[in-house]
Design goal:
Chain lengths: ~100, ~325
Amino acid sequence: MSMLHTRRTLLTVICEASIEARVLADARRLGAHGSTASDARGWGQHGERDGGWPMSGNVRIDILCEAAVADTIAGHLQEHYFRSYAMICYLSEVSVLRSEKF
Amino acid sequence: MPFEPVILFFLLGLLAGVMRSDLKIPAVLYESLSIFLLLAIGLKGGVELARQSLSALVLPVLVVVGVGALIPLIAFPVLQRLGRLSRADAASVAAHYGSVSVVTFAVAGAYLSGVGQAFEGYMVVFLVLLEFPALMIGVWLARRGANAGGQGKVLHEVFAGKSIVLLLGGLVIGWLAGADGLKPLDRVFFDLFKGLLAIFLLEMGLVAASRLGDLRRAGAFLIGFAVAMPLFAGALGALTATLLGLSVGGAALLATLYASASYIAAPAAMRIAVPEANPALSIGASLGITFPFNLVVGIPTYYWLANQFQGAI
């Protein structure tokens, strides 16, 4: 059986848990077909976010999508969230099966 | 008087946090305990409310909420002019101090029970109603002169937030079921209450210790504010309650409510509605200073104040 890989972009967003719902709603509106979120801990310019209580909670959101959609979402996050919230995002090229899902 | 054990649990958590102990309360336990405490407090208030004529509460509720709304309005210019905080930061801190802390309220209830002081059971109604007006005022203060907006978001954040859903839900369930109806649940919600509050306070001690670093950024003014504001608001609460004819216990509890600063509902709402405000300032002050201050010094002081006002008026 042949495996048909297709190139897609993996957009990873790590941000404050308090804005998870808003980020997911924005991503959906801008064309994402799905996402996977998990609790995360870490530190950076906004201090340590250890997840010990709700206000120090962090989430990591993975979105697999086409490159243009990933660029649009990343641009939107940069414009609306980067200044005021603890948030980083990065893009990577990945190979996927069943590319029609993304 | 022997030390109130739940406060000693808080101090143990604070000490463990300062010592950088590896003690950590799992986040799911924190969530579970907060759900339990909110429901139990709501239920307890609902049972007491069922014994009360609702129409007799209308005037006290209006006065308590009206006077409570003054707190953020007084705090804001002090923070902005004297403290030289930005408009967003001053509004956010004012909202934190205008809103209330459920756990401080619970500890004050435990303290009053410990000294054998009765209080009006329907105080929980004030707790619920004092949580959100200050948050709306905070958003309004932050946005005044700029584009309006954010109120819708904060309304949703507050009313759909778990603290209002569970407190109000518990209150209604307790009110509908009454003391007899809730009897089968007493062992879970009332008998276990203080023990679980103790574990929750252990966690709050750890969290408070983790916010102490924020205070270096907050500066001397905010540290002074975090002690002076609760004392002023506490006196306002004791006076208001006494004029309303509440008991000494009720006056001490209202003083505690006015004096307490929110660190659950307010940070979540302000983060969404006033994102430019620095949460380290407001949470550092409310959780790093005011919360421990109220637990250890404030509550006995408000009880003393309530006694003084009751004797004088």
